[in-house]
């Protein structure tokens, strides 16, 4: 390759750093090829100034012949043409030749370098063996030439002279020499770069700092910095090159912004010139020299500068393999340029910028397409789609501007404008002139005709939409679609527009964007009107008429559309148009009157509907109807308490408010709220918490797929409701209603003929030819019509009912479907225990179903022996008849028998009439009324519960032989009573006299208080052992007149009344003592005396005939001190054989010791009947009884030895030692039986004896209680 | 300052949207709605990266010729969108961020109001006032 002589063409970008070669040109030419090949082979590390990171760099060089003109003049800023290194080649090995010519040439070379201040040089001495051989004669050590050169030229810079040995030979020596030479060369080149670029950068910075000075020009500076960028690009440092352009970009941007802020620079004036050319970006050339020249000349417009800058950035970015950054920057650039032109107030022909942007977008896309494969493009369409959409947008603007979108085609004015716009494009660039799809051609074609425009526009739109869909930007895709729809509408092709509009609307509705919904819906309305889709159009109109986002005027217009259609043709045969009601009016509330929503058949049931009319004007409705589904009542639902289910406020149903279309909330947001309940799982054994959680009760609603049910709001074109409106079925109907905007109340009268359940299904409003239908009413609305059987109830007027006193009870008769006729009567079977009390005036009142009194009449009551007949006044069906009667429940005399009393057959006697009630202390009595009603052949049994206000107790008291009877009457009710005429009588014994010890006056018994009465029993001959007594009194509630006293009887029986024995005890101090002392033994003398001879029967029962014929009764006494005042020493009990004779006495002496000083009560003496075992009473002895029971073992012993002295104390051990053990085993046990309460009279009961403290007590015990 | 500020619920319906000038309201609605595409894209991209320490500020969603649209998403997926006029070049990224932070704080206050039902349109006067402060003042 020949070294280049001419100035390099810089825009080829095949530039390499220039290295000049001086000296032996032929030598250099021979070495050029290996040199050019080997120089870039190995990278060098380039250490940079200003802390920039070091880089590995492959060096290349453009070797040119040295010429003086190549050396830069002072002040020349060009870097590309700057020679970075100068090499002097020589193969001189002859001292003479060196001295003769070479040295001189070298000196000249160096002088010229020095003259231009260049210090980057190197001298290469090439040594060849051939040369040596050639010049054999005057051979000098070869080093001497090199040394000489070093001496002469490289003072102190010996490295500036390099030896290259045998460069053309393939020897190791040659290789070594080459590599060291190349290393030297690279090092020197880099040194030169660093130094020269550093100097350049410093100069550049200095220039930049001067930018505030008046004469500063951005274009000049631009050229300087771009020079640096070129050098970096030349060195393959694209990143650094890009930085230079970015800095320029930022600097320029800042100036524009400052200009906008009022801080203008003079040089910006040139950029503010009106835009003449809008030919778009040019990215196909690495450098657009035309633009560069115009910048250099300071004639560039803003668009030119921006275009040039971007084309350079684009080139570098593509070198850097970052095409997607190009698209992103392109979009920014285009937006920015538009803004900047606006900011700088540059005058631009209308549409010119659109052309520029459109061309630029396509140019960028083409450039990117040119450097990427299709797969890569498809994968990165998120980066390009913005440009596509922008281009589409701009083309649409241009189309509208040039009249290409209208139906009629462009006007002449439009055509003129088109011509102007096309003029600004200039001629097509030579490099795209052969391309069929160049942006230039596209734009020109699109603007040329309506058809071509449409083709190009659709192509772009669909491309953009497809890409948006590809990357899942559906909203953006729909927006493009919407704009496409607008285009179609302008073109008068509504059928193609509708699809896009519907799709967009669906998305806005589902996401709840009300304003776009309204706007899109308006477009749809226009579209549907053009298409003549009446039903859909009317439906859309209805939605728009109720849209709060529109002005009243607009809404009225849409409403009028519907109304005028409705009143247009009254052709009966024409099918009515059915529309969804949701857009027209909303059902907000439904109220039943009566609120139970349950009436008897034939009654009036009103239903009030609250409708919120969404129309802007009042609408007259010919008929508003609600269809009803009737189903027969299930059996067993006769009760009237059954109201409509799941309603907190009975009779009123509030409907969930579907948000009006103007304020739409997406379907996802209107899902039912969660109904959550807490659940706790407790262990059944100890009630501890095992787990707790939350359950959702309405999962079936919440989890429902949202897309499965289209809400009527979403489906704009509501299909005609599948449920046909059938007029034959039962309906709630109102004719001629006017619905005002806002809330309206409409009252229906519901049919209530047949009993059953009526379900409201549909609501339908008819306006002329238009029907608004609400296909389903949800929640389910039902009302019930029932037929009821007559019902009679009796309940107390006041709680509780008291037995023994006249009490009022209320009779309530619900007539149901039965009409009470004149002469109908209730027949009450009389009962002795609860007679009806006749009263003079008994009024019955008749109540309507709504509990209003509609009549009153007196009852006539006839009583016969068995039946009381109450004649009822005539009462209409489903009314209530109410009257009060007085009844009296007789208190049963006698104490309550023990409940376990058995009948002969062993069953527990059924005693339903009297029992103790758990809620009250009073004894309850259940009574039943048996009533025959005229409407039924069966008797009605009605229970009533009465309570006895008193509780009576009796007791027998004795004083020696004298007897007293005490009766206690306790008032257990809540009322207070007067008691009078208290008396006690004996049924059997006439001779008996009961003498009252009570006051004669009336007694007041307050609630929960008791009255005690006492009688002394006197008898003449014998006291009977059994007394049948009757206590009687009269009582009346406090404050009642004397006539209201009612009798109260109490029967009781007393047995074993007679006193049989008297017991006397005496305590004697120890002998020689006056008083008892604590701690000393005293004697307890017990004297048991028989007072009466036992009667025959008694004797047979308990008497015992001894072997010697003397009749005795065996008694047992026992001394027991429960309060531990006494210590019983020795035996504490004993057997007494009491002769059967009056006044027979038995004395016993027992040793006792007082444990304390003071007045001590006597120890208790108990007397029992002793019943020895008999053959019939064979009771198996308890084997342990001798151990367990002291007393009995003693008795056993006594039994064995009746003669034995019972007073002598024997130890239990001695009893056993007698060997009576084996006898015991076979013997049945004797029994002890206590005496009745009056049979033993204890004289010393509660008697006390004085006990002195022990004299020698040195411990004083004081009990303070 | 902003020309449009929108708060968008997790389900992508607007909780609050206000713009100046009002005659362009519809355009802003469309712009904000469309920006949700990019918001979702960015959320899903960020979600893949790190779910826990996600940056709430989404940055510039997309520029248009006239406006710049910025996004921000709370942890509960409520989105804030601020639209700024492109000619307004004085606004830096940091200022946008602080606007979003203010918006978020104020919205948190709204949510803390026991009478506010989450999911309802925001009607708080305080919030309104705060938004007004961030909007371009039109005379």
UniProtKB/TrEMBL annotation, chain A:
<dbReference type="Pfam" id="PF23604">
    <property type="entry name" value="Ig_TRAPPC10"/>
</dbReference>
<protein>
    <recommendedName>
        <fullName>Trafficking protein particle complex 10</fullName>
    </recommendedName>
</protein>
<keyword id="KW-0813">Transport</keyword>
<feature type="compositionally biased region" description="Polar residues">
    <location>
        <begin position="658"/>
        <end position="669"/>
    </location>
</feature>
<feature type="domain" description="TRAPPC10/Trs130 C-terminal">
    <location>
        <begin position="1025"/>
        <end position="1252"/>
    </location>
</feature>
<feature type="domain" description="TRAPPC10/Trs130 N-terminal">
    <location>
        <begin position="14"/>
        <end position="326"/>
    </location>
</feature>
<dbReference type="GO" id="GO:0034498">
    <property type="term" value="P:early endosome to Golgi transport"/>
</dbReference>
<feature type="domain" description="TRAPPC10 Ig-like">
    <location>
        <begin position="793"/>
        <end position="946"/>
    </location>
</feature>
<feature type="region of interest" description="Disordered">
    <location>
        <begin position="635"/>
        <end position="669"/>
    </location>
</feature>
<dbReference type="Pfam" id="PF23036">
    <property type="entry name" value="TRAPPC10_1st"/>
</dbReference>
<keyword id="KW-0333">Golgi apparatus</keyword>
<dbReference type="GO" id="GO:0006891">
    <property type="term" value="P:intra-Golgi vesicle-mediated transport"/>
</dbReference>
<dbReference type="InterPro" id="IPR045126">
    <property type="entry name" value="TRAPPC10/Trs130"/>
</dbReference>
<feature type="region of interest" description="Disordered">
    <location>
        <begin position="1197"/>
        <end position="1230"/>
    </location>
</feature>
<dbReference type="InterPro" id="IPR056913">
    <property type="entry name" value="TRAPPC10/Trs130_N"/>
</dbReference>
<dbReference type="GO" id="GO:1990071">
    <property type="term" value="C:TRAPPII protein complex"/>
</dbReference>
<dbReference type="Pfam" id="PF12584">
    <property type="entry name" value="TRAPPC10"/>
</dbReference>
<feature type="region of interest" description="Disordered">
    <location>
        <begin position="896"/>
        <end position="921"/>
    </location>
</feature>
<dbReference type="InterPro" id="IPR056917">
    <property type="entry name" value="Ig_TRAPPC10"/>
</dbReference>
<dbReference type="InterPro" id="IPR011990">
    <property type="entry name" value="TPR-like_helical_dom_sf"/>
</dbReference>
<dbReference type="InterPro" id="IPR022233">
    <property type="entry name" value="TRAPPC10/Trs130_C"/>
</dbReference>
<dbReference type="GO" id="GO:0005829">
    <property type="term" value="C:cytosol"/>
</dbReference>
From TrEMBL, chain B:
<keyword id="KW-0931">ER-Golgi transport</keyword>
<dbReference type="InterPro" id="IPR006722">
    <property type="entry name" value="Sedlin"/>
</dbReference>
<dbReference type="GO" id="GO:0006888">
    <property type="term" value="P:endoplasmic reticulum to Golgi vesicle-mediated transport"/>
</dbReference>
<keyword id="KW-0813">Transport</keyword>
<comment type="similarity">
    <text>Belongs to the TRAPP small subunits family. Sedlin subfamily.</text>
</comment>
<dbReference type="GO" id="GO:0048471">
    <property type="term" value="C:perinuclear region of cytoplasm"/>
</dbReference>
<dbReference type="InterPro" id="IPR011012">
    <property type="entry name" value="Longin-like_dom_sf"/>
</dbReference>
<dbReference type="InterPro" id="IPR044760">
    <property type="entry name" value="TRAPPC2L"/>
</dbReference>
<protein>
    <recommendedName>
        <fullName>Trafficking protein particle complex subunit 2-like protein</fullName>
    </recommendedName>
</protein>
<dbReference type="Pfam" id="PF04628">
    <property type="entry name" value="Sedlin_N"/>
</dbReference>
């Amino acid at each position: 390759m020949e070294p280049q002589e001419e100035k390099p063409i810089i825009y080829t970008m095949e530039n390499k750093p220039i290295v000049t070669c001086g000296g032996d040109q032929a030598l250099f030419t021979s070495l050029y090829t290996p040199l050019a090949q080997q120089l870039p082979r190995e990278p060098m590390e380039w250490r940079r100034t200003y802390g920039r990171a070091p880089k590995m760099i492959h060096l290349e060089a453009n070797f040119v012949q040295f010429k003086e003109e190549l050396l830069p003049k002072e002040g020349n800023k060009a870097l590309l043409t700057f020679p970075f290194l100068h090499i002097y080649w020589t193969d001189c090995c002859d001292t003479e030749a060196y001295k003769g010519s070479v040295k001189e040439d070298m000196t000249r070379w160096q002088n010229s370098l020095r003259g231009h201040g260049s210090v980057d040089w190197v001298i290469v001495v090439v040594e060849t063996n051939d040369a040596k051989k050639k010049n054999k004669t005057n051979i000098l050590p070869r080093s001497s030439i090199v040394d000489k050169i070093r001496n002469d030229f490289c003072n102190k810079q010996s490295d500036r002279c390099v030896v290259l040995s045998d460069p053309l030979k393939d020897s190791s020596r040659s290789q070594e020499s080459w590599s060291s030479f190349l290393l030297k060369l690279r090092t020197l080149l880099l040194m030169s770069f660093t130094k020269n670029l550093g100097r350049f950068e410093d100069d550049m910075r200095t220039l930049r700092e001067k930018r505030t000075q008046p004469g500063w020009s951005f274009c000049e500076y631009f050229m300087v910095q771009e020079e640096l960028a070129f050098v970096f690009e030349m060195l393959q440092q694209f990143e650094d090159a890009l930085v230079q352009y970015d800095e320029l970009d930022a600097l320029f941007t800042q100036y524009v912004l400052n200009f906008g802020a009022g801080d203008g620079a003079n040089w910006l004036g040139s950029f503010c010139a009106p835009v003449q050319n809008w030919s778009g970006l040019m990215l196909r050339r690495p450098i657009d020299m035309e633009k560069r020249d115009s910048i250099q000349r300071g004639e560039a417009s803003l668009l030119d500068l921006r275009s040039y800058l971007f084309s350079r950035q684009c080139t570098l970015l593509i070198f850097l393999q970052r095409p997607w950054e190009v698209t992103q920057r392109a979009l920014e650039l285009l937006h920015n340029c538009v803004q900047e032109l606006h900011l700088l107030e540059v005058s631009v022909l209308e549409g010119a910028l659109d052309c520029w942007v459109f061309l630029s977008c396509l140019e960028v896309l083409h450039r990117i397409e040119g450097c990427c494969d299709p797969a890569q493009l498809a994968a990165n369409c998120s980066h390009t789609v913005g440009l596509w959409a922008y281009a589409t947008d701009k083309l649409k603007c241009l189309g509208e501007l040039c009249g290409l979108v209208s139906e009629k085609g462009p006007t002449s004015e439009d055509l003129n404008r088109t011509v102007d716009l096309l003029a600004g494009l200039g001629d097509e660039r030579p490099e795209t002139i052969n391309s069929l799809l160049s942006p230039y051609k596209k734009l020109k074609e699109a603007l040329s005709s309506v058809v071509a425009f449409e083709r190009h526009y659709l192509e772009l739109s669909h491309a953009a939409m497809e890409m948006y869909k590809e990357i899942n930007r559906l909203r953006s895709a729909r927006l493009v679609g919407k704009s496409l729809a607008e285009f179609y509408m302008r073109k008068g092709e509504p059928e193609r527009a509708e699809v896009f509009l519907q799709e967009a609307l669906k998305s806005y509705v589902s996401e709840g964007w009300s304003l776009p919904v309204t706007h899109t819906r308006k477009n749809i309305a226009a579209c549907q009107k053009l298409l003549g889709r009446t039903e859909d159009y009317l439906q859309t109109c209805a939605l728009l008429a109720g849209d709060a986002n529109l002005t009243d005027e607009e809404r009225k217009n849409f409403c009028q559309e519907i109304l005028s259609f409705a009143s247009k043709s009254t052709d009966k045969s024409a099918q009515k148009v059915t529309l969804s009601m949701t857009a027209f009016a909303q059902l907000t509330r439904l109220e039943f009157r009566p609120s139970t929503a349950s009436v008897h058949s034939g009654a009036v049931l009103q239903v009030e509907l609250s409708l919120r009319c969404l129309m802007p004007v009042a609408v007259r409705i010919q008929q508003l109807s609600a269809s009803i589904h009737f189903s027969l009542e299930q059996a067993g639902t006769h009760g009237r308490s059954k109201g409509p289910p799941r309603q907190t406020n009975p009779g009123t149903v509030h409907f969930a408010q579907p948000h009006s279309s103007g304020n739409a909330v997406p379907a996802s947001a209107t899902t039912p709220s969660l109904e959550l309940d807490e659940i706790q799982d407790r262990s059944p054994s100890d009630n501890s918490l095992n787990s707790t959680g939350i359950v959702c009760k309405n999962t079936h609603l919440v989890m429902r797929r949202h897309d499965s049910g289209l809400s009527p709001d979403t489906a704009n074109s509501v299909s005609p409701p599948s449920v046909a409106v059938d007029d034959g079925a039962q309906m709630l109907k109102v004719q001629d209603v006017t619905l005002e905007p806002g809330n309206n109340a409409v009252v229906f009268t519901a049919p209530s003929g047949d009993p059953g359940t009526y379900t409201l299904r549909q609501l339908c409003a008819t306006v002329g030819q238009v029907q608004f239908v609400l296909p389903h009413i949800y929640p389910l609305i039902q009302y019930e019509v029932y037929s009821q059987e007559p019902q009679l109830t009796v309940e107390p007027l006041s709680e509780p009912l008291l037995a023994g006193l006249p009490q009022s009870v209320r009779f309530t008769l619900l007539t149901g479907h039965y009409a009470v006729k004149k002469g109908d009567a209730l027949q009450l079977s009389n009962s002795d225990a609860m007679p009806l009390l006749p009263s003079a005036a008994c009024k019955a009142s008749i109540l309507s179903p709504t509990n209003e009194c509609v009549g009153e009449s007196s009852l006539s009551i006839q009583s016969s022996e068995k039946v009381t007949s109450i004649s009822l006044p005539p009462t209409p069906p489903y009314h209530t008849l109410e009257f009060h009667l007085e009844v009296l429940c007789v208190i049963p005399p006698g104490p309550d028998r023990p409940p376990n009393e058995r009948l002969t057959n062993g069953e527990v006697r059924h005693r339903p009439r009297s029992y103790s009630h758990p809620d009250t202390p009073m004894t309850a009595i259940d009574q039943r009324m048996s009533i025959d009603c005229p409407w039924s052949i069966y008797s009605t049994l009605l229970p009533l519960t009465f309570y006895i206000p008193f509780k009576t107790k009796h007791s027998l008291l004795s004083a020696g032989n004298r007897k007293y009877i005490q009766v206690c009457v306790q008032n257990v009710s809540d009322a207070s009573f007067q008691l009078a005429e208290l008396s006690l009588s004996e049924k059997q014994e006439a001779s008996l006299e009961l003498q009252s010890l009570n006051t004669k006056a009336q007694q007041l018994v307050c609630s929960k208080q008791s009255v005690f009465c006492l009688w002394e029993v006197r008898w003449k001959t014998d006291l009977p052992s059994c007394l049948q007594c009757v206590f009687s009194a009269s009582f009346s509630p406090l404050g009642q007149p004397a006539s209201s006293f009612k009798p109260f009887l109490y029967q009781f029986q007393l047995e074993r009344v007679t006193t049989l024995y008297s017991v006397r005890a005496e305590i004697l101090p120890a002998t020689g003592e006056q008083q008892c002392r604590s701690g000393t033994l005293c004697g307890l003398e017990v004297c048991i005396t028989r007072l009466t001879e036992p009667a025959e029967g008694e004797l047979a029962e308990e008497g015992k005939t001894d072997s010697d014929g003397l009749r005795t009764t065996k008694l047992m006494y026992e001394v027991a001190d429960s309060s531990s005042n006494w210590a019983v020493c020795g035996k504490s009990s004993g057997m007494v054989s009491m002769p059967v004779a009056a006044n027979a006495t038995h004395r016993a002496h027992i040793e006792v010791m007082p444990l304390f000083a003071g007045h001590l009560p006597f120890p208790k003496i108990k007397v029992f009947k002793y019943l020895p075992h008999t053959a019939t009473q064979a009771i198996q002895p308890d084997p342990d009884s001798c151990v367990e029971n002291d007393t009995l073992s003693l008795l056993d012993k006594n039994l064995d030895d009746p003669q034995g002295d019972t007073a002598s104390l024997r130890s239990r051990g001695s009893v056993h030692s007698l060997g009576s053990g084996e006898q015991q085993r076979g013997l049945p046990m004797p029994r002890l039986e206590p005496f009745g309460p009056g049979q033993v009279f204890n004289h010393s009961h509660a008697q006390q004896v004085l006990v002195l403290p022990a004299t020698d007590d040195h411990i004083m015990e004081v009990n303070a209680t | 300052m902003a020309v449009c500020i929108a708060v968008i619920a997790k389900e992508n319906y607007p909780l609050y949207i206000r713009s100046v000038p009002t005659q362009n309201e519809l355009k802003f609605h469309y712009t904000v709605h469309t920006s949700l595409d990019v918001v979702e894209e960015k959320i899903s991209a960020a979600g893949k990266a790190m779910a826990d320490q996600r940056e709430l500020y989404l940055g510039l969603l997309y520029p248009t010729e006239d406006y710049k649209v910025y996004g921000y998403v709370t942890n509960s997926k409520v989105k804030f969108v601020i639209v700024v006029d492109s000619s307004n070049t004085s606004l830096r990224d940091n200022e946008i961020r602080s606007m979003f932070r203010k918006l978020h704080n104020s919205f948190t206050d709204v949510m803390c109001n026991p009478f506010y039902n989450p999911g309802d349109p925001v009607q708080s006067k305080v919030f309104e006032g705060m938004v007004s402060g961030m909007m371009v003042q039109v005379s």
